[in-house]
């Protein structure tokens, strides 16, 4: 399967129009939807918002074909739920499936590693290159000061951080995976204790990070996580079934100006 991103054509002010069957999705709708789809750049947020609206319109039209009420917002949400209940076929995982998944991926069903973290946020929008460059330089300068005088972290957080945690001297407390934005979350999981030697990037700007303590996770026996394993496999099966269903609707109803991708099903489930 392939996808075609919305791309700005040189000399054009706006991307090409999007149509789902006979319905059109205008740029104002996409702009309103963007707030629900945070991303590293405005372009990525716009693309996610556009795909989400396409998925919703595909489902709305299919619900209408089946005679489900789609006249107002409340009707549409109820109709989509009824539609998916009727037409989505996701197999239930067996006990053998669950045990096999747990054996192959024990790290996914372990107690998570916990980190006690302090940080300073130097805010800069993803698409503001001058601010990003300036923030990185400021971060390097502050890290140099902290290497010389680590006891000044609270002071520097209170003076320089753009995160509300500055009022607590940058304290974030104990974090487990999933509690910060993904790009920062991934970086934190690999850091040793102590001050990290360079600023870490996220969609919010640059983070100066100290890991005060790590508590490594532990593997859990299957009986302790059987429900989690079954839920995970059920969710995967539902996502696969939903992806195939949406692609079939895309081919049947017709979509112009954008193509769906693997994230379309995930976004709808969330």
UniProtKB/TrEMBL annotation:
PROSITE patterns: PPIC_PPIASE_2
Similarity-based family: Belongs to the PpiC/parvulin rotamase family.
Entries under InterPro entries matching the protein: PPIase_dom_sf (IPR046357), PPIase_PpiC (IPR000297), PrsA_foldase (IPR050245), Trigger_fact/SurA_dom_sf (IPR027304)
Coiled coil region boundaries: none
Enzyme class: isomerase
Record flagged with keyword Cell cycle: no
Single GO MF descriptor: peptidyl-prolyl cis-trans isomerase activity
Descriptive protein name: peptidylprolyl isomerase
EC numbers on record: 5.2.1.8
PpiC domain mapped to chain residues: 112-213
Record field: catalytic activity: [protein]-peptidylproline (omega=180) = [protein]-peptidylproline (omega=0)
Higher taxonomy: Bacteria, Pseudomonadati, Pseudomonadota, Gammaproteobacteria, Oceanospirillales
């Amino acid at each position: 399967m392939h996808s075609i991103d919305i791309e700005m054509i040189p000399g054009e002010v706006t991307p090409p129009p999007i149509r789902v069957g006979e319905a059109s999705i205008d740029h104002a709708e996409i702009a309103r939807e963007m707030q629900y789809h945070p991303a590293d750049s405005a372009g990525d947020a716009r693309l996610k918002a556009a795909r989400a609206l396409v998925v919703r319109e595909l489902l709305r039209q299919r619900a209408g074909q089946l005679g489900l009420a789609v006249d107002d917002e409340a009707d549409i949400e109820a109709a989509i739920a009824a539609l998916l209940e009727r037409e989505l076929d996701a197999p239930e995982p067996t006990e053998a499936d669950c045990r096999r998944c747990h054996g192959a991926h024990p790290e996914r069903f372990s107690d998570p590693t916990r980190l006690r973290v302090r940080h300073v946020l130097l805010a800069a929008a993803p698409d503001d290159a001058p601010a990003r460059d300036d923030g990185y330089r400021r971060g390097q300068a502050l890290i140099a000061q902290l290497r010389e005088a680590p006891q000044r972290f609270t002071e520097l957080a209170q003076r320089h951080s753009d995160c509300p945690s500055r009022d607590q001297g940058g304290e974030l407390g104990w974090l487990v995976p999933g509690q910060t934005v993904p790009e920062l979350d991934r970086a934190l999981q690999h850091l040793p204790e102590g001050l990290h030697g360079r600023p870490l990037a996220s969609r919010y700007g640059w983070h100066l990070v100290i890991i005060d303590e790590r508590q490594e996770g532990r593997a859990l026996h299957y009986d302790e996580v059987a429900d989690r394993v079954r839920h995970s496999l059920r969710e995967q099966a539902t996502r696969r079934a939903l992806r195939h269903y949406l692609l079939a609707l895309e081919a049947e109803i017709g979509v112009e100006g954008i193509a769906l991708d693997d994230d379309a099903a995930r976004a709808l489930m969330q």
